[in-house]
Amino acid sequence: MRSIWNGAISFGLVSIPIKLVNATENHSISFRQIHLADGGRIRYRKVCEIDEQEVTAAEIGKAYEEADGSMIPITDEDLGALPLPTAKTIEIVAFVPAASIDPLQMDAAYYLSANGVPAAKPYTLLREALKRSRKVAVAKYALRGRERLGMLRVVDDVIAMHGLLWPDEIRSPEGVAPETQVTVRDTELDLADALMDTLGEVDMDSLHDDYREAVEELIAAKAEGRTLEPAEADDSGGKVIDLIAALESSVRAAKEARGEEPGTEEEPAESPGAKVTSLAGRKKSGGTGAKKKAAAAGKKTAAKKSAPSRAPAKRTAARSTKKSAAKAGARTSAKKTTAKSDPKQATKKVAPRKRASA
């Protein structure tokens, strides 16, 4: 790989000659501007505003524009004479945990290559020190006419450097978060956790740019005179959906994509904009545990109903006993009254009893 910058890493009193190599490359498809009438290429020419003449790259310099529009020329010699200690040096200023670097500061990435045989030993020393400490190095360096901030870390057996934005270049997220008061239920969090577990991890090497492949296929079809069928538009955007239903549907779809059984439970009624499906493995409301609970509740209810009925039964039996005793007493008193009022009847009734006894 071609180096874009040569310099050295300043590690205390140790100086490590290195080369800076781009660690990334752009695979985006670029287009040219054309004239629609005849297909001619549209080019931009650099023209001087004063004499309206086109100028070459060798005739172009740099200048700073003030508020009133006047220009202050700045040459490369002026910039090179600045007291910049990091002009050709990556100066390490600290070693910090990787978690202390905000990912928002991450910028371009580079590989640092040892420049020459003498640089191999100190290069390896810094690499192994970073590995053992599990830290990253924060450094300053100058590139393309300005001083920059960088982070050095180990990738395989190579020291990589990520360009970092200065802290004052990170904008505050004020006004970005939702201002309305929102309450998230535990059920929704559980479904979100289930979806995260179902999606699991991914091999980063398996991810690719689908849009770029579609553009390449379109270009090939145009070159061959073919016409591609338009893709179906996704009309799910912009709909107000039930969050629980969407999460359950996402979990089901993720399991089907991974070849897992989503479950055979009956699906609840659909809500607008999303298909509601039950989570696989979730306990049904009519399961064994629910049946046991229902049976126990039924026994308690039956016991409550039967318990109050015993007391009335006892009271009814007592009332019937009292009534029979009162009737018997009434009969006895009636017999006594009859005997007193009619002596003949009393004699008639008593006589047979005596004969029967004789």
Brief characterization of the structure:
The protein has 358 residues and is α+β, with helices and mostly antiparallel strands.
Give a description of the structure:
The chain has helices at 76-80, 120-133, 186-199, 210-224, 243-257, 288-341, 343-357; strands at 3-11, 14-22, 62-65, 71-74, 89-97, 106-114, 135-143, 146-155, 158-164. The chain has 358 residues and is α+β, with helices and mostly antiparallel strands. It contains seven helices and nine strands; from the N terminus they run E-E-E-E-H-E-E-H-E-E-E-H-H-H-H-H. Helix 3 runs parallel beside helix 5 (243-257) and helix 6 (288-341) crosses helix 7. The relative contact order is 0.07. The radius of gyration is 48 Å and the shape is extended. Mean pLDDT is 75; it is low at 264-292, 303-318 and 334-358.
